[in-house]
Write a structure and sequence with these properties.
The protein is of the alpha+beta class. The protein is built from 12 helices and 10 strands. Helix 6 runs antiparallel to helix 7 and helix 10 runs antiparallel to helix 12.
């Protein structure tokens, strides 16, 4: 995989703002092929077991780390391979095509580290990003609470200054890869008198005294990725672990989601593509009334619609990734919020529709756990919910259009 590191560190990260808005470069397609081969060989064979046993796919993490694919977005300056936003999308998409739970390894590593990349001090970046780049640690994101889901600004987790430290108390809910990740971006209220402008961001370590985790949630899908509470009880951390200036945490959180909603779109694309691929193979082989099921026009129309909508969502997602990359490089991209919300919303809605249709095309077989499309349908549902429900995405888009 040293050749892959050279590829990611070379042409992909050197592309400037003039590269095509949608179309992947040749290097991106080479990357796709490499990830697809790795996923087929090392991740897909155990995807059903990961789902059935609801266990974290450690083998997937190991394989992705060996391939430098677990956090391709981290810049070379911090020990990463320097892949651009589209490279990250392609990695997540291709892993999700095989196993949605495993795709949350690169996706959540990006979600957890983007706040540090956007707003963190140089010391904070050097201290934490290198460990993630080397595969020694994963990095999760802790924003939501029991009473602060879509209304994240209503959070109650508090951080109180005590000399050269901050003391955190509160409980974060629905935290992806909680208990497995070593590091957490945590949003907490530092000044309750000014609403969202009183929220700050911190890096919390799993080993900090007072950090614990709730039981694993029993979920419909993505069962191999643990979702747990992160419980903070008098967690005392050095003041230099604040990400950005005091009171800028909510701004950082929103800016982060502009970039990482695109990774959820990528996950949705991969799940949908995996379901479509399996359904196509099935209808070409399955025979009814003396003919292949694929010969029936009604089935042909279903398959065509599935593929058409999926490709439309893919193009919008790649377009959003190009804008995300330009924004990460410091360019002002006025419509990034709209485009990232649109990509996440469309791709996840398409993934739900495509996986439901894939189950339908397999008939009774599709409804059983012996075939992967029922798992893919269950996995697809969460993409319409996390990192902002699709109802919230429509609110975000409307506000951008009408402001």
């Amino acid at each position: 995989m040293h050749q892959l590191r050279s590829l990611l560190a070379g042409s992909i990260c050197d592309m400037n703002a003039d590269f095509p808005a949608y179309a992947p470069a040749e290097e991106h397609e080479l990357l796709r092929q490499a990830v697809r081969e790795l996923a087929a060989a090392e991740i897909a064979p155990r995807a059903a077991e990961v789902d059935e046993r609801a266990v974290f796919p450690r083998h997937s993490l190991d394989a992705l780390v060996r391939g430098d694919l677990h956090a391709v977005h981290i810049p070379e300056a911090y020990g990463g391979v320097g892949g651009d936003a589209l490279a990250a999308v392609i990695v997540i998409e291709e892993v999700a095509r095989a196993c949605a739970s495993s795709s949350l390894i690169p996706a959540v590593n990006k979600l957890g580290t983007v706040p540090v990349l956007l707003s963190g001090s140089e010391d904070l970046k050097k201290r934490y990003l290198g460990a993630v780049a080397r595969g020694e640690a994963m990095f999760s994101y802790a924003l939501s609470e029991a009473e602060a889901g879509s209304d994240a600004a209503a959070m109650r987790t508090r951080a109180v200054r005590d000399g050269g430290h901050w003391v955190l108390n509160g409980t974060k809910m629905w935290i992806t890869n909680a208990g497995v990740s070593e590091f957490y971006t945590v949003m907490a209220v530092t000044d309750p008198s000014v609403g969202a402008r009183g929220i700050s961001a911190f890096v919390v370590e799993k080993g900090d005294v007072g950090v614990s985790f709730g039981p694993k949630e029993r979920k419909l899908g993505i069962k191999g990725s643990p979702t747990r509470q992160v419980i903070l009880e008098d967690v005392r951390i050095p003041a230099d672990r604040m990400i950005g200036a005091e009171g800028t945490g909510f701004k950082t959180a929103l800016a982060t989601l502009d970039h990482t909603r695109i990774t959820i779109a990528a996950q949705a694309l991969g799940i949908a593509q995996g379901a479509l691929d399996y359904a196509i193979g099935y209808v070409k082989e399955r025979r009814q009334f003396g003919r292949a099921v694929a010969d029936f026009q009604g089935v042909q129309f279903m398959v065509a619609d599935m593929a058409m909508r999926l490709e439309g969502a893919r193009q919008l997602t790649y377009h959003a990734a190009a804008k995300s990359e330009r924004a990460m490089r410091g360019e002002r991209v006025a419509d990034l919020t709209f485009v990232s919300s649109a990509a996440k919303c469309l791709a996840s809605d398409v993934a739900m529709d495509v996986t439901v249709d894939a189950v339908q095309l397999l008939g009774g077989y599709g409804y059983t756990g012996d075939f992967p499309v029922e798992r893919m349908m269950r996995d697809a549902k969460i993409t319409q919910i996390y990192e902002g429900t699709n109802q919230i995405q429509r609110v975000v888009m409307a506000r951008q259009l009408l402001k």
